[in-house]
Amino acid sequence: MPARETPPGECPQCWQHAHDRRAHRHLGPREDCPQCVDHMINGHPYLVPKKKSSWW
Fold it and tell me: How far is CA 23 from CA 5, 29, 37, 39, 56, in A?
């Protein structure tokens, strides 16, 4: 499954780990992903910026 581009306003790591099965393939059953745990504790490093609204 090819990686999709991260949509605006989303965290690239969260998006990849949620939509790409290869990210957690190396883990055993009921084993936590160290990257995800660190990410949940320390927060998002950055978010993909949203496009400016052209409404106004």
Answer: 15, 14, 13, 14, 40
